[in-house]
Input
Amino acid sequence: MSDCLFCNIIEKKADADIVYEDEDIIAFKDINPVAPVHLLIVPRKHFDSILSIGEEDAYLVGRLHLVVNKLAGEFGLQERGFRIVINCGEEGGQAVLHLHFHLIGGKPLYHNIAKGRGV
Ligand code: AMP
Ligand code: ZN
Output
């Protein structure tokens, strides 16, 4: 999609600090990091959000997790721990409408919204 920022990064029409690429997945540094490590792991195929994936995408979605695992190792996060975030839709705070995983780590992330604190 020509008006999609992440599609433009994937097609090398926009710049990004790319840390991983394969035929289906790309990962790059978040331009506005919230922690020492903040990567975005992105399928090359455009999905508006996690709501757009189907049964046929299960293998790709599984592979996104394997790339998380690999990058967590390369960025020294496997021992320390880290967080994966997928924002979806307006109330989920999704700003870029191309499905992506945030991989965040390198400092303690005490604010645990998934346990109901800070909501
Ligand atoms: P989300 O709010 O989940 O849609 O996340 C979008 C993320 O993309 C934000 O954390 C932004 O900082 C990040 N972002 C926006 N533009 C760029 C860019 N050109 N390169 C890298 N990251 C970006
Ligand atoms: Zn896109």
